[in-house]
Automatic annotation (TrEMBL):
<keyword id="KW-0449">Lipoprotein</keyword>
<keyword id="KW-0472">Membrane</keyword>
<dbReference type="GO" id="GO:0005886">
    <property type="term" value="C:plasma membrane"/>
</dbReference>
<dbReference type="InterPro" id="IPR040015">
    <property type="entry name" value="UBL3-like"/>
</dbReference>
<protein>
    <recommendedName>
        <fullName>Membrane-anchored ubiquitin-fold protein</fullName>
    </recommendedName>
</protein>
<dbReference type="InterPro" id="IPR029071">
    <property type="entry name" value="Ubiquitin-like_domsf"/>
</dbReference>
<dbReference type="InterPro" id="IPR017000">
    <property type="entry name" value="MUB"/>
</dbReference>
<dbReference type="InterPro" id="IPR039540">
    <property type="entry name" value="UBL3-like_ubiquitin_dom"/>
</dbReference>
<keyword id="KW-1003">Cell membrane</keyword>
<keyword id="KW-0564">Palmitate</keyword>
<feature type="domain" description="UBL3-like ubiquitin">
    <location>
        <begin position="6"/>
        <end position="115"/>
    </location>
</feature>
<dbReference type="Pfam" id="PF13881">
    <property type="entry name" value="Rad60-SLD_2"/>
</dbReference>
<comment type="function">
    <text>May serve as docking site to facilitate the association of other proteins to the plasma membrane.</text>
</comment>
Length: 117
């Protein structure tokens, strides 16, 4: 029974409803290491995937998980089912698109100034 307490089965639900996992993680694993695992297992055919760990946010029990927390610290008694699988939601935050940056810079270039003497 101690093996069940030392690890947790986690699957990661992507925004399109597909899953990565489930996979067993030790309760001492950090949220950052979970994100690294997601990044390495991210389906290559999916467009707009994360480029780095910083592009990922994990949500469990309605809370955004912090990188420095461990899996054990993030467990919610409401979500834990003995011998079950915990589902964490994955959100990918994308950096601003080049087009948006270009539009903003264009707006700066078209400023007019009038001076009345």
């Amino acid at each position: 029974m101690s093996g069940v307490q030392d690890s947790l089965e986690i699957k990661f639900r992507l925004i399109d409803g597909s899953d990565i996992g489930p996979k067993s993680f030790p309760v001492a694993a950090s949220v950052a290491s979970l994100k690294e695992s997601i990044l390495s297992q991210w389906p290559k055919e999916k467009v707009n995937g994360p480029r780095t760990v910083k592009d990922l946010k994990l949500i469990s029990g309605g809370k955004i998980l912090e990188n420095n927390k461990t899996v054990g610290e993030c467990r919610s008694p409401l979500c834990d089912v003995p011998g079950g699988v915990t589902t964490m939601h994955v959100v990918v935050t994308q950096p601003p698109q080049e087009k948006e940056l270009r539009v903003k810079s264009d707006q700066k270039q078209h400023k007019c100034m009038c001076v009345i003497l």
